[in-house]
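Newbie here. two chains, one complex. Structure please?
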Amino acid sequence: MNGGHWETISSEQQFADRNLEVVIDRVQTPGRPDPRSWTIVHRKPAVVIAAMTRDGKIILIRQERIPIEQAIWEMASGQIDNHDTDPENIKNVALRELREETGYELAARGELVSLGYFFSSPGFTDERGYFFLARPVQPCADGPDREEGESILDCRAFTSEEIRRMIAENEIRDANTLGICARLASRGLLSIAPHHE
Amino acid sequence: MNGGHWETISSEQQFADRNLEVVIDRVQTPGRPDPRSWTIVHRKPAVVIAAMTRDGKIILIRQERIPIEQAIWEMASGQIDNHDTDPENIKNVALRELREETGYELAARGELVSLGYFFSSPGFTDERGYFFLARPVQPCADGPDREEGESILDCRAFTSEEIRRMIAENEIRDANTLGICARLASRGLLSIAPHHE
Protein backbone atom coordinates (compact mmCIF):
# COMPACT_ATOMS: atom_id res chain seq x y z
CA MET A 1 0.00 0.00 0.00
CA ASN A 2 2.99 2.33 -0.32
CA GLY A 3 1.90 5.42 -2.14
CA GLY A 4 -1.65 4.81 -0.93
CA HIS A 5 -3.97 7.51 0.23
CA TRP A 6 -3.92 8.46 3.92
CA GLU A 7 -5.99 11.44 4.92
CA THR A 8 -6.92 12.87 8.29
CA ILE A 9 -10.44 14.16 7.81
CA SER A 10 -10.89 15.63 11.27
CA SER A 11 -8.96 15.80 14.54
CA GLU A 12 -10.29 16.68 17.99
CA GLN A 13 -7.94 17.24 20.88
CA GLN A 14 -9.05 15.47 24.06
CA PHE A 15 -6.13 16.17 26.39
CA ALA A 16 -2.68 17.75 26.22
CA ASP A 17 0.16 18.53 28.58
CA ARG A 18 3.92 18.76 28.07
CA ASN A 19 4.23 14.96 28.05
CA LEU A 20 1.61 13.85 25.56
CA GLU A 21 -1.45 14.82 23.54
CA VAL A 22 -4.57 12.72 23.01
CA VAL A 23 -6.66 13.26 19.89
CA ILE A 24 -9.57 11.47 18.25
CA ASP A 25 -9.03 11.55 14.51
CA ARG A 26 -11.17 10.47 11.62
CA VAL A 27 -8.79 8.94 9.11
CA GLN A 28 -9.19 7.65 5.58
CA THR A 29 -6.82 4.73 5.01
CA PRO A 30 -5.72 3.26 1.66
CA GLY A 31 -7.05 -0.20 2.51
CA ARG A 32 -10.63 0.45 3.55
CA PRO A 33 -13.56 2.12 1.85
CA ASP A 34 -14.72 4.26 4.79
CA PRO A 35 -12.92 6.57 7.23
CA ARG A 36 -12.29 5.30 10.74
CA SER A 37 -12.34 7.07 14.08
CA TRP A 38 -9.22 6.42 16.19
CA THR A 39 -7.88 7.54 19.57
CA ILE A 40 -4.23 8.52 19.13
CA VAL A 41 -1.60 9.55 21.66
CA HIS A 42 1.01 11.89 20.20
CA ARG A 43 4.41 11.69 21.85
CA LYS A 44 7.80 13.21 21.15
CA PRO A 45 10.19 10.90 19.33
CA ALA A 46 13.08 9.45 21.31
CA VAL A 47 16.62 8.21 20.94
CA VAL A 48 17.82 4.83 22.23
CA ILE A 49 21.56 4.30 22.58
CA ALA A 50 23.50 1.03 22.81
CA ALA A 51 26.84 2.04 24.32
CA MET A 52 29.57 -0.54 23.70
CA THR A 53 32.92 -0.53 25.45
CA ARG A 54 36.19 -1.43 23.73
CA ASP A 55 35.92 -4.99 25.09
CA GLY A 56 32.39 -5.44 23.71
CA LYS A 57 30.38 -4.85 26.88
CA ILE A 58 27.07 -2.97 26.78
CA ILE A 59 26.18 -0.23 29.27
CA LEU A 60 22.74 -0.50 30.87
CA ILE A 61 21.08 1.80 33.37
CA ARG A 62 18.66 0.78 36.08
CA GLN A 63 15.81 3.24 36.04
CA GLU A 64 12.62 3.80 38.00
CA ARG A 65 9.66 3.82 35.61
CA ILE A 66 6.61 5.30 37.27
CA PRO A 67 3.87 4.00 34.90
CA ILE A 68 4.88 0.41 35.66
CA GLU A 69 5.98 1.01 39.26
CA GLN A 70 9.18 -0.91 38.68
CA ALA A 71 12.88 -0.24 38.25
CA ILE A 72 14.26 -2.05 35.18
CA TRP A 73 17.62 -2.48 33.42
CA GLU A 74 17.52 -0.77 30.04
CA MET A 75 19.50 1.11 27.40
CA ALA A 76 20.00 4.86 27.77
CA SER A 77 17.26 6.86 26.06
CA GLY A 78 15.75 10.31 25.93
CA GLN A 79 13.23 12.44 24.13
CA ILE A 80 13.83 14.74 21.16
CA ASP A 81 12.37 18.20 21.60
CA ASN A 82 10.37 20.10 18.99
CA HIS A 83 9.94 17.02 16.75
CA ASP A 84 13.35 17.83 15.30
CA THR A 85 13.96 15.58 12.29
CA ASP A 86 17.44 16.83 11.39
CA PRO A 87 19.72 13.76 11.54
CA GLU A 88 22.65 15.71 13.00
CA ASN A 89 20.49 17.17 15.76
CA ILE A 90 19.10 13.73 16.59
CA LYS A 91 22.64 12.36 16.83
CA ASN A 92 23.55 15.16 19.20
CA VAL A 93 20.58 14.28 21.41
CA ALA A 94 21.84 10.68 21.45
CA LEU A 95 25.35 11.75 22.47
CA ARG A 96 23.97 14.04 25.18
CA GLU A 97 21.67 11.36 26.63
CA LEU A 98 24.54 8.86 26.55
CA ARG A 99 26.66 11.19 28.64
CA GLU A 100 23.90 12.32 30.99
CA GLU A 101 22.45 8.92 31.74
CA THR A 102 25.47 6.62 31.70
CA GLY A 103 28.47 8.86 32.34
CA TYR A 104 30.12 7.44 29.22
CA GLU A 105 31.10 9.21 26.02
CA LEU A 106 32.45 8.24 22.61
CA ALA A 107 36.19 7.52 22.75
CA ALA A 108 38.56 9.28 20.37
CA ARG A 109 37.80 8.00 16.86
CA GLY A 110 34.65 6.36 18.22
CA GLU A 111 31.59 6.19 15.97
CA LEU A 112 27.87 6.71 16.40
CA VAL A 113 26.15 4.21 14.08
CA SER A 114 22.58 4.98 13.05
CA LEU A 115 20.39 1.85 13.20
CA GLY A 116 17.08 3.14 11.94
CA TYR A 117 14.05 3.54 14.17
CA PHE A 118 11.00 1.73 15.55
CA PHE A 119 7.44 2.39 16.71
CA SER A 120 6.77 1.56 20.36
CA SER A 121 3.04 0.78 20.00
CA PRO A 122 1.62 1.81 16.63
CA GLY A 123 -1.90 0.68 17.55
CA PHE A 124 -2.33 3.79 19.68
CA THR A 125 0.70 6.11 19.53
CA ASP A 126 2.97 7.68 16.92
CA GLU A 127 5.92 7.51 19.34
CA ARG A 128 9.08 6.39 17.58
CA GLY A 129 12.58 5.70 18.82
CA TYR A 130 15.76 6.21 16.81
CA PHE A 131 18.37 3.52 17.47
CA PHE A 132 22.09 4.23 17.76
CA LEU A 133 25.19 2.22 18.52
CA ALA A 134 27.98 4.24 20.16
CA ARG A 135 31.35 2.45 20.07
CA PRO A 136 33.70 2.39 21.68
CA VAL A 137 32.65 4.39 24.71
CA GLN A 138 34.75 5.36 27.72
CA PRO A 139 33.84 6.85 31.10
CA CYS A 140 33.61 10.64 31.09
CA ALA A 141 36.23 12.32 33.23
CA ASP A 142 33.49 13.95 35.30
CA GLY A 143 30.96 11.09 35.57
CA PRO A 144 27.27 11.17 34.67
CA ASP A 145 25.56 14.53 34.40
CA ARG A 146 22.08 13.62 35.49
CA GLU A 147 19.25 16.06 35.35
CA GLU A 148 17.05 16.62 38.35
CA GLY A 149 14.28 14.57 36.74
CA GLU A 150 16.26 11.41 36.14
CA SER A 151 15.48 8.37 38.21
CA ILE A 152 18.56 6.30 37.50
CA LEU A 153 19.56 4.04 40.36
CA ASP A 154 22.53 2.20 38.86
CA CYS A 155 24.64 1.86 35.72
CA ARG A 156 26.81 -1.12 34.73
CA ALA A 157 28.56 -2.79 31.82
CA PHE A 158 27.27 -6.23 30.79
CA THR A 159 28.79 -8.86 28.51
CA SER A 160 26.76 -9.95 25.50
CA GLU A 161 26.18 -13.30 27.24
CA GLU A 162 24.77 -11.46 30.27
CA ILE A 163 22.52 -9.43 27.96
CA ARG A 164 21.37 -12.65 26.26
CA ARG A 165 20.53 -14.26 29.59
CA MET A 166 18.67 -11.15 30.80
CA ILE A 167 16.55 -11.10 27.64
CA ALA A 168 15.83 -14.83 27.88
CA GLU A 169 14.84 -14.60 31.55
CA ASN A 170 12.55 -11.56 31.17
CA GLU A 171 14.90 -9.30 33.17
CA ILE A 172 15.29 -7.11 30.08
CA ARG A 173 11.65 -6.38 29.31
CA ASP A 174 11.27 -2.94 27.70
CA ALA A 175 10.73 -2.31 24.00
CA ASN A 176 13.68 0.09 23.65
CA THR A 177 16.21 -2.47 24.83
CA LEU A 178 14.66 -5.54 23.20
CA GLY A 179 14.19 -3.63 19.96
CA ILE A 180 17.73 -2.30 19.67
CA CYS A 181 19.13 -5.74 20.58
CA ALA A 182 17.14 -7.31 17.71
CA ARG A 183 18.38 -4.62 15.31
CA LEU A 184 21.99 -5.05 16.49
CA ALA A 185 21.80 -8.85 16.25
CA SER A 186 20.35 -8.74 12.73
CA ARG A 187 23.31 -6.66 11.60
CA GLY A 188 25.90 -8.85 13.29
CA LEU A 189 26.80 -6.11 15.78
CA LEU A 190 25.81 -8.02 18.93
CA SER A 191 25.33 -11.72 19.55
CA ILE A 192 22.26 -12.59 21.62
CA ALA A 193 22.08 -16.27 20.61
CA PRO A 194 23.01 -19.03 23.03
CA HIS A 195 26.43 -20.51 22.29
CA HIS A 196 25.15 -24.07 22.42
CA GLU A 197 21.76 -25.54 21.77
CA MET B 1 15.05 -1.72 44.57
CA ASN B 2 12.95 -4.89 44.60
CA GLY B 3 10.78 -4.84 47.67
CA GLY B 4 10.99 -1.04 47.72
CA HIS B 5 8.09 1.20 48.47
CA TRP B 6 5.86 2.34 45.60
CA GLU B 7 2.77 4.29 46.53
CA THR B 8 0.23 6.17 44.45
CA ILE B 9 -0.71 9.14 46.62
CA SER B 10 -3.34 10.59 44.29
CA SER B 11 -4.73 9.93 40.83
CA GLU B 12 -6.75 12.26 38.64
CA GLN B 13 -8.40 11.03 35.48
CA GLN B 14 -7.88 13.36 32.53
CA PHE B 15 -9.46 11.37 29.70
CA ALA B 16 -10.96 7.94 29.13
CA ASP B 17 -12.61 6.03 26.34
CA ARG B 18 -12.75 2.33 25.48
CA ASN B 19 -9.21 2.45 24.04
CA LEU B 20 -7.18 4.14 26.76
CA GLU B 21 -7.27 6.18 29.96
CA VAL B 22 -5.05 9.13 30.84
CA VAL B 23 -4.37 9.93 34.49
CA ILE B 24 -2.04 12.26 36.33
CA ASP B 25 -0.77 10.45 39.40
CA ARG B 26 1.36 11.57 42.30
CA VAL B 27 3.64 8.65 43.06
CA GLN B 28 6.14 7.94 45.81
CA THR B 29 9.01 5.85 44.42
CA PRO B 30 11.55 3.83 46.40
CA GLY B 31 14.50 5.73 44.96
CA ARG B 32 13.62 9.37 45.58
CA PRO B 33 12.75 11.32 48.71
CA ASP B 34 9.71 13.19 47.34
CA PRO B 35 6.63 12.09 45.37
CA ARG B 36 6.51 12.87 41.67
CA SER B 37 3.66 13.89 39.40
CA TRP B 38 3.43 11.78 36.24
CA THR B 39 1.11 11.59 33.21
CA ILE B 40 0.26 7.94 32.61
CA VAL B 41 -1.69 6.25 29.81
CA HIS B 42 -3.40 3.06 30.94
CA ARG B 43 -3.90 0.48 28.21
CA LYS B 44 -5.15 -3.07 28.10
CA PRO B 45 -2.38 -5.68 28.00
CA ALA B 46 -1.81 -7.51 24.73
CA VAL B 47 -0.61 -10.81 23.32
CA VAL B 48 2.03 -11.08 20.59
CA ILE B 49 2.30 -14.39 18.73
CA ALA B 50 5.19 -15.74 16.69
CA ALA B 51 3.62 -18.42 14.52
CA MET B 52 6.19 -20.90 13.15
CA THR B 53 5.44 -23.40 10.42
CA ARG B 54 6.84 -26.93 10.39
CA ASP B 55 9.66 -25.82 8.08
CA GLY B 56 10.67 -22.96 10.40
CA LYS B 57 9.02 -20.05 8.61
CA ILE B 58 7.38 -17.23 10.56
CA ILE B 59 3.93 -15.84 9.70
CA LEU B 60 3.70 -12.04 9.48
CA ILE B 61 0.68 -9.89 8.72
CA ARG B 62 0.72 -6.57 6.93
CA GLN B 63 -1.50 -4.22 8.86
CA GLU B 64 -2.65 -0.63 8.53
CA ARG B 65 -1.73 1.29 11.67
CA ILE B 66 -3.63 4.53 11.86
CA PRO B 67 -1.50 6.39 14.46
CA ILE B 68 1.55 6.12 12.19
CA GLU B 69 -0.36 6.29 8.89
CA GLN B 70 1.55 3.31 7.55
CA ALA B 71 0.99 -0.35 6.81
CA ILE B 72 3.77 -2.49 8.31
CA TRP B 73 4.73 -6.17 8.47
CA GLU B 74 4.38 -7.46 12.01
CA MET B 75 3.55 -10.43 14.21
CA ALA B 76 -0.08 -11.18 15.02
CA SER B 77 -1.25 -9.45 18.21
CA GLY B 78 -4.37 -8.48 20.07
CA GLN B 79 -5.64 -6.98 23.28
CA ILE B 80 -6.71 -8.85 26.42
CA ASP B 81 -10.06 -7.73 27.79
CA ASN B 82 -10.81 -6.99 31.44
CA HIS B 83 -7.14 -7.02 32.46
CA ASP B 84 -7.43 -10.77 32.74
CA THR B 85 -4.24 -12.14 34.31
CA ASP B 86 -5.15 -15.83 34.28
CA PRO B 87 -2.42 -17.57 32.24
CA GLU B 88 -4.84 -20.01 30.59
CA ASN B 89 -7.16 -17.20 29.52
CA ILE B 90 -4.23 -15.23 28.11
CA LYS B 91 -3.12 -18.29 26.13
CA ASN B 92 -6.63 -18.62 24.73
CA VAL B 93 -6.54 -14.99 23.59
CA ALA B 94 -3.24 -15.75 21.83
CA LEU B 95 -4.69 -18.78 20.05
CA ARG B 96 -7.77 -16.81 19.02
CA GLU B 97 -5.76 -13.87 17.67
CA LEU B 98 -3.48 -16.28 15.81
CA ARG B 99 -6.45 -17.78 14.05
CA GLU B 100 -8.31 -14.53 13.43
CA GLU B 101 -5.39 -12.53 12.12
CA THR B 102 -3.31 -15.10 10.24
CA GLY B 103 -5.70 -17.91 9.38
CA TYR B 104 -3.27 -20.38 10.97
CA GLU B 105 -3.77 -22.60 14.00
CA LEU B 106 -1.67 -24.94 16.09
CA ALA B 107 -1.14 -28.28 14.35
CA ALA B 108 -1.97 -31.51 16.16
CA ARG B 109 0.53 -31.90 19.01
CA GLY B 110 1.65 -28.30 18.44
CA GLU B 111 2.70 -26.24 21.44
CA LEU B 112 2.15 -22.68 22.61
CA VAL B 113 5.36 -21.61 24.36
CA SER B 114 5.12 -18.73 26.84
CA LEU B 115 8.03 -16.29 26.40
CA GLY B 116 7.38 -13.78 29.16
CA TYR B 117 6.27 -10.23 28.48
CA PHE B 118 7.51 -6.71 27.79
CA PHE B 119 6.56 -3.08 28.31
CA SER B 120 6.03 -1.09 25.11
CA SER B 121 6.97 2.34 26.50
CA PRO B 122 7.28 2.38 30.30
CA GLY B 123 8.08 6.09 30.40
CA PHE B 124 4.42 6.90 29.79
CA THR B 125 2.25 3.76 29.62
CA ASP B 126 1.67 0.57 31.59
CA GLU B 127 0.87 -1.33 28.39
CA ARG B 128 2.48 -4.75 28.35
CA GLY B 129 2.61 -7.49 25.75
CA TYR B 130 2.77 -11.21 26.50
CA PHE B 131 4.96 -13.11 24.04
CA PHE B 132 4.09 -16.55 22.67
CA LEU B 133 5.62 -18.94 20.19
CA ALA B 134 3.08 -21.18 18.44
CA ARG B 135 4.69 -24.16 16.68
CA PRO B 136 4.08 -25.79 14.41
CA VAL B 137 1.15 -23.97 12.87
CA GLN B 138 -0.89 -24.97 9.83
CA PRO B 139 -3.49 -23.12 7.76
CA CYS B 140 -7.03 -23.33 9.17
CA ALA B 141 -9.44 -25.18 6.93
CA ASP B 142 -11.66 -22.11 6.75
CA GLY B 143 -9.04 -19.35 6.45
CA PRO B 144 -8.66 -16.24 8.61
CA ASP B 145 -11.64 -15.11 10.64
CA ARG B 146 -11.08 -11.39 10.68
CA GLU B 147 -13.25 -9.08 12.67
CA GLU B 148 -14.82 -6.06 11.08
CA GLY B 149 -12.28 -3.81 12.75
CA GLU B 150 -9.16 -5.50 11.46
CA SER B 151 -7.06 -3.75 8.88
CA ILE B 152 -4.96 -6.61 7.66
CA LEU B 153 -3.92 -6.31 4.04
CA ASP B 154 -1.73 -9.37 3.63
CA CYS B 155 -0.33 -12.40 5.42
CA ARG B 156 2.76 -14.40 4.45
CA ALA B 157 5.33 -16.87 5.73
CA PHE B 158 8.94 -15.65 5.88
CA THR B 159 12.17 -17.56 6.39
CA SER B 160 14.35 -16.59 9.35
CA GLU B 161 16.84 -15.08 6.88
CA GLU B 162 14.06 -12.92 5.44
CA ILE B 163 13.06 -11.86 8.96
CA ARG B 164 16.70 -11.02 9.71
CA ARG B 165 17.01 -8.89 6.59
CA MET B 166 13.72 -7.08 7.31
CA ILE B 167 14.89 -6.24 10.83
CA ALA B 168 18.29 -5.07 9.59
CA GLU B 169 16.75 -2.89 6.86
CA ASN B 170 14.11 -1.25 9.09
CA GLU B 171 11.24 -2.98 7.29
CA ILE B 172 10.31 -4.66 10.58
CA ARG B 173 9.98 -1.63 12.83
CA ASP B 174 7.42 -2.21 15.56
CA ALA B 175 8.19 -3.07 19.17
CA ASN B 176 6.01 -6.20 19.23
CA THR B 177 7.90 -7.87 16.40
CA LEU B 178 11.39 -6.65 17.30
CA GLY B 179 10.81 -7.56 20.94
CA ILE B 180 9.59 -11.09 20.35
CA CYS B 181 12.41 -11.70 17.86
CA ALA B 182 14.97 -10.67 20.51
CA ARG B 183 13.31 -12.95 23.07
CA LEU B 184 13.20 -15.87 20.58
CA ALA B 185 16.83 -15.35 19.53
CA SER B 186 18.05 -15.24 23.14
CA ARG B 187 16.46 -18.63 23.76
CA GLY B 188 17.81 -20.21 20.58
CA LEU B 189 14.31 -20.48 19.06
CA LEU B 190 14.97 -18.23 16.03
CA SER B 191 18.22 -17.15 14.39
CA ILE B 192 18.33 -13.48 13.44
CA ALA B 193 22.13 -13.25 13.09
CA PRO B 194 23.77 -12.97 9.66
CA HIS B 195 25.36 -16.22 8.53
CA HIS B 196 28.68 -14.57 7.64
CA GLU B 197 30.34 -11.47 8.99
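Moderator note: Residues 116 and 158 of chain A are 23 Å apart (CA to CA). The longest helix of chain A spans residues 87-102. Thread marked as resolved.
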